[in-house]
Amino acid sequence: MRKIITISVLVAVLFIPVVSFSIVITESEFNEAHHKIDSLPVGDRVAFWAEKFVGTPYDPDPLGEYVRNRAIIADDRVDCMYMTFRTVELAMSKSYAGTVQRALTVRFHTRGKLDSHGKVTNYDDRYRYGIAMIRSGKFGRDVSAEIGRTTPLKGARGINSVDVILNDQAVNSVGNMKNGDIIFFVKDPEKRKVGEIIGHIGIVSVKNKGIFLIHASGIKNGSGAVKKVALEQYLRGMPFVGIIVTRYD
Questions:
Q1: Model's pTM, two decimal places?
Q2: What are the structural domains of the chain?
Q3: Separation CA 207–CA 112 (nearest Å)
Q4: Of 28, 34, 64, 67, nearest to 48 (Cα)?
Q5: Is 50 exceeded by the pLDDT of residue 37?
Q6: Which of 4, 23, 33, 184 is nearest to 99 (CA)?
Q7: Helix ranges, the chain (H)
Q8: Alpha helix (H) ranges present in 119-227?
Q9: pLDDT of 86 strictly over 60
Q10: If 0-12 CB within 10 Å is exposed, 13-18 middle and 19+ buried, where does residue 99 land?
Q11: Separation of first and last alpha carbons in the chain
């Protein structure tokens, strides 16, 4: 369970709770969970940690608070990219300190660097685009063609095309998803603003025969939260043209 702290303010001599926010995953929480899930497949561990973020407020900073503050751990407000980074780091690390070292590999094209205060000095080298995360292989193997029929779609930023499970086929392929699969949602080529092929990222959770999507749902310069929704329902109404799916074997 995530710890919740309620902040109260004095209004008209009454204490009225006005804000609730999530505390970062602590070292003791990590250690307790790690002993229980360490023997599980990586995908199951990814889904486990993704569940811990449900309800966490969305990070409205367009740059990302973790980037702006040069931080590795910034669990109190998250966007879809940070949540994906962090769940993978938590799932693949043997110790809490190890999650920081893992982040220096997972988030960067080369390797992250920290100064003497633990601040990142080279976030310019981070993955900024979801397609680069897919092509790095660090977020699992692209299993899209194993899940559903793929169709070539126009690429961008030096990539000629990408193989995508288009919307209708994606809905029909939900039953082929596995716990901890990472879904990269593909934007309509006509709606891209800076050549971004991927517009959103989420993690699959399979529980009690239900197949869900855990994703940081929000608007930059706005608000939102991490939500857990039925995957099929999300796919039917999503503002994207298709998906690419990666999996840890």
A1: 0.90
A2: 4-247 (2.30.260.10)
A3: 35
A4: 34
A5: yes
A6: 33
A7: 27-37, 42-52, 65-68, 80-92, 96-106, 130-136, 144-147, 167-172, 231-237
A8: 130-136, 144-147, 167-172
A9: yes
A10: buried
A11: 27
